[in-house]
Structures are given as structure tokens and as C-alpha cells.
Amino acid sequence: MQRKNMKFLRKNSKQLRKTPPKADDMKHIKRNPIYFVLDNVLDTYNIGSIFRLGDATAVEKIYICGENSEYPPSSRIHKAAVGTEEWVPWKKSNSVIQIINQLKSEGVQIIAIEQSPKSINYSLLTNHLHLPVALVVGHETTGISKEVLDLADIIVELPVYGINNSLNVWGSLAIITYKIIENY
Prior knowledge:
Layout: H1 13-18, H2 23-26, E1 32-39, H3 44-56, E2 59-65, H4 75-81, E3 90-93, H5 96-105, E4 109-113, E5 120-121, E6 133-138, H6 146-151, E7 154-157, H7 169-183
Parallel strand pairs: 1-2, 1-6, 2-3, 4-6, 4-7, 5-7
Helix pairs in contact: 3-4, 3-7
């Protein structure tokens, strides 16, 4: 995915926090055919960081799903997102299943990022990939719900080598997103 030079648009953190997007600015952003689906992600730092990642990688849209998830406007999300929640299209939904089914009906491949007996190593992802894709991450403690894992086309896992058995949701999402972008 070649990116055209958009230096005229780039803003630093201070500018992003204080400058809402203009319609003219938004139309110059070429979106990648990638969606983020948050399945009950609770930590506002993670949600804000996912907005920053979504902006950095020009994703099509972010879906924040779950009754207990926070969503913009939120001062805590805004702090972590440094204002990018204003630049990335997003939608709030109580039903992650509804969003997954909607995306599948539109031909979007569903990729869950989760540890599972059915998961493949992330290094094999590009062998099974077709665009557009939705990348699903889950609750910081309980992960992605079983119902969503059952609907996923692929479950991908990142290896961990230390004492902790998992990686932060936005960090995992970042690795997989950039892997997709660098290969397409």
C-alpha cells in the first residue's frame, strides 16, 4: 500500500489535541482496507492508543463494542489518543456479533488476535490473508469472546518468550496491522 506524501496534513500532539479536523483535511486521507474491532476493551489508555494506531495506519474505521467500553468523547481516551479520535472514523456498538456479521456480509475477512488452540503464528498470516480485513482484539483480562472466535476466519497469535503470557491489546494490534500493511 503506497502512501502519498501528506506532510501538509501532519500535526504534532499539541496541534492534534486542539485542532478538530476539517472536511477538506479528511478527504485527503487515503484509508487502508483495515477495520479495528474492539471486543469489550475496557482500558481507556488502550482505546486511546488504538485511535492513535488507527490514525497512523489510516484504517477505514474503528468499532468499539461492548456495554462497558468507554468511547469518545472521553477525557481519558482523548489524553491517550492525543486528539486522533477526531480524525479516525469510529462507531460504538453494544453487539460485537452484529458488527462481525455485518462486516462478514460485506466480504471483510475477520482476523482475531488471540491465544487459542486454533490460532496460527502471526508469521503465517500473509499466507491466508485477503483484503479488506477486520482485526479483532479483546478484553484485557478475558480476551476475545468465544462467540467472536467462532465467527473469525483466522485466529492469529503472537509468540511470547518472557514470564508474561500475553502482549498488550494495542501492541498486538500494532504488530499485526503493520505486518498487513508491509505485505500489501
